[in-house]
Design a protein that fits this description.
single chain, 217 residues, mainly alpha, three-stranded antiparallel β-sheet, 6 helices, 6 strands, 43% helix, metal-binding
Length: 217
């Protein structure tokens, strides 16, 4: 049996590893991207992959519209900027970054925000948010939005995994190591050096930026 990392695509082959995937400890992580064991899924057969996904409900103009908050608009513009950077459209990337900065400055302080709230929001995005948007984009044939959803879902999954690992291990998880963020897709990697290639968007290591932790008072 083979199991595939839903973030980077690494394959754990039980036959080659001489150990059943179920026998691996829950603390085991993907050797390539650091994703938790829970993010691995059984490899699907080619026949199963060819099955057509259920069509999403059609989106009607002017129905169920909502005003997006500043934080969502900031994230959207930031993602669009990264997409432009990947296509070497520096001018467009700069404009989207400017918009992202404008909306970021308008984000109100969030009261009662804690790790439990963040955990719930991650779970909601992974369980309902991304599947809904991906379904609508697939129905509309919007390849650009589909790519954004693929990247966004994988980045959200790794963030959720890292947060849960931090909950289990505490500050020891981040002691004597570095945190790297892909400047193109936002993938987060914990380790002494960034991965040679981003597991999500496949850009080289020099596209990663090292984050600086906040100084304790």
């Amino acid at each position: 049996m083979r199991y595939v990392c839903s973030v980077c695509g690494y394959v754990y082959d039980e036959e080659k590893e001489k150990r059943a995937f179920s026998q691996l400890p829950e603390s085991w992580v993907c050797p390539l991207c650091g994703a938790a064991k829970s993010l691995f899924v059984p490899e699907k057969s080619e026949k199963a992959e060819m099955k057509k996904a259920p069509a999403a409900a059609p989106v009607r103009p002017d129905e169920d519209l909502e005003k997006l908050p500043a934080g969502v608009l900031a994230a959207l513009c930031s993602n669009l900027a990264r997409g432009c950077e990947k296509q070497y459209k520096e001018k467009e990337a700069g404009l989207f970054k400017e918009l992202a900065g404008h909306f970021t400055a308008a984000v109100p302080a969030e009261e009662g925000a804690d790790r439990d709230v963040l955990d719930r929001l991650f779970a909601e995005d992974l369980e309902t948010g991304y599947p809904a948007v991906s379904g609508a984009a697939k129905e509309a044939g919007d390849r650009g939005t589909l790519r954004v959803c693929v990247w966004g879902e994988k980045v959200t999954a790794i963030l959720h995994s890292l947060m849960q690992r931090y909950e289990r291990e505490g500050e020891a998880f981040l002691k004597d190591t570095e945190i790297w963020v892909c400047s193109v897709c936002g993938f987060v990697y914990v380790g002494d050096e960034p991965p040679a290639i981003c597991p999500v968007c496949k850009v080289p290591a020099w596209k990663f930026e090292r984050t600086e932790g906040r100084r304790m008072a």
